[in-house]
Design brief:
single chain, mainly alpha, 22 helices, 0% strand
Length: 458
């Protein structure tokens, strides 16, 4: 039996054909989406993508971490990990968690993010602490725990795989927390790991691949923090963070990061009342994104362009962009879809189109698309459900349906106990102003009273 400290066999890993069989005819990207959906069903958090599926099927990951194991058991009832082609955890650890030179073994998966563990990697115990924080902690407490890995980093002379992985995991955690709770309680806490991530860019790296990961990770973290600023009404801060991400993308020659930065810049410009800038930024994002081969990405970027045209009251240009967005969306998902686009499904497509029709003054179409967005919304994305419902409430109020608007507004009030978003509260405030002339209706009056109580207790 090999020593716990022995080097792993130099032979290449054996492909996991059993797991490949379970994937069936689905693409790795489609199967990864099913894994993420199954995780949400049981309250787990995994950042599964096509790359992870490929690593499992190639045999690089010989044993999943505890979170993935629970998800796979849920997906395939009655099957043990061995039936899925995995080795026992004890056997994998017996091969040695590290090579003699301290480098990570290719056979051990980090419990935090599905990557191989290494020096400074996350332990099983830390993963359990993080998971409990996600499941039971309040928003501020969760943020404090889950963002600690990068925030506690200090400027150093060298940076390697562990530091790159920590930055990438911070991005995933911020996105998960925002999906569930909104931006207001997270923004100031997230600024600290962002500073730490950019400090790492000045550290010496021995491999170009690590340097590229650090630049991409820092840029994505800047976008995530920028979005938190955007959603909490800090537009100038958001603009600064997006510009920082764009500069990082240009420096690193990263078209995917550039497309993402321009995408968010377009969204911000639309909300900040700069529609021409929104159109230009969305078009620049499309120029960068064409090289990536993701129809879903190009669909979202077309919707960003449509949002700018709608606020310029250019109906023809808006309709053309919307039609292009739907055509691209219908091509389906692919392995080229960026990881950050997990929120972009049919509900988001409907929600963004509803916003365009609303800006063009076509309230009937806005309501129709808004109702579909709410009906299709994934329960995992609580913030988006609140957003779609708030938009729907405002369109109903503007469209002459005060009782229906009050009912939708009441659902938003219930969600605001879980979601903290200045943008959503602002949208609800617009609905309240529209409904005040209808205060003689008992149903509307009840909603207005509930809203006033919530404001007083905030």
């Amino acid at each position: 039996m090999a020593s716990p400290h022995a080097s792993p066999s130099p032979r290449p890993p054996r492909p996991n054909t059993a797991f490949r069989t379970l994937r069936g005819q689905r693409s790795p990207g489609e199967f990864a989406a099913l894994v993420r959906r199954a995780a949400r069903e049981i309250g787990e958090q995994v950042s599964c993508d096509a790359r992870y599926i490929g690593r499992v099927e190639s045999g690089e990951i010989r044993c999943p971490n505890y979170a993935y194991e629970r998800v796979f058991r849920h997906m395939f009832p009655g099957r043990e990990p061995a039936d899925m082609g995995f080795l026992p955890r004890a056997a994998v650890r017996g091969r040695g968690a590290h090579k003699r030179d301290g480098a990570p073994s290719a056979h051990i998966e980090s419990p935090a993010d599905g990557r191989t563990s290494g020096a400074g990697g996350t332990s099983d115990e830390e993963s359990d602490v993080l998971r409990r924080a996600f499941m039971t902690g309040g928003t501020a407490a969760v943020a404090a725990v889950s963002l600690a890995g990068v925030a506690d980093a200090r400027p150093r002379r060298h940076a390697g795989e562990a530091e790159a992985a920590a930055v990438e995991q911070a991005v995933r955690r911020i996105r998960l927390l925002d999906d569930r709770h909104g931006a207001d309680a997270l923004y100031r806490r997230a600024a600290r790991p962002l500073r730490a991530a950019y400090d790492l860019l000045d550290a010496e790296t021995r491999r170009r691949s690590v340097a590229d990961r650090l630049h991409t990770g820092a840029g994505e973290l800047a976008i995530s923090v920028g979005w938190l600023a955007h959603d909490s009404g800090r537009f100038s801060d958001a603009r600064s963070h997006y510009a920082e991400a764009l500069a990082t993308a240009r420096l690193a020659g990263d078209p995917a990061l550039e497309a993402h930065a321009f995408c968010n810049t377009a969204f911000l410009a639309r909300d900040a009342g700069r529609p021409r800038e929104a159109v230009r930024a969305a078009q620049a994002a499309q120029q960068a994104g064409r090289r990536l081969g993701s129809a879903r990405l190009m669909s979202l970027l077309s919707l960003r362009e449509a949002g700018g045209w709608s606020r310029l009251d250019d109906r023809a240009a808006c309709e053309a962009a919307l039609l292009r967005a739907r055509s691209l969306f219908d091509r389906g998902v692919s392995d080229a879809d960026p990881e950050w686009m997990t929120f972009f499904g049919e509900a988001e497509l409907e929600g963004l189109e509803a916003q365009c029709w609303s800006a063009l003054g076509d309230r009937a179409r806005a309501v129709a698309h808004g109702e579909r967005a709410v009906a299709l919304a994934d329960p995992h994305f609580a913030r988006n459900i609140a957003l779609y419902t708030a938009q729907l409430a405002d369109d109903l109020a503007q469209g002459g349906a005060p009782e229906a608007a009050a009912a939708a507004g009441g659902r938003v009030l219930e969600l605001l106990g879980q979601v903290q978003s200045t943008r959503i509260r602002g949208m609800l405030g617009s609905t309240v102003r529209s409904l005040r002339p209808h205060g003689g209706d008992s149903f509307v009056a009840s909603f207005l009273t509930r809203h006033q109580r919530l404001r007083a207790s905030a």
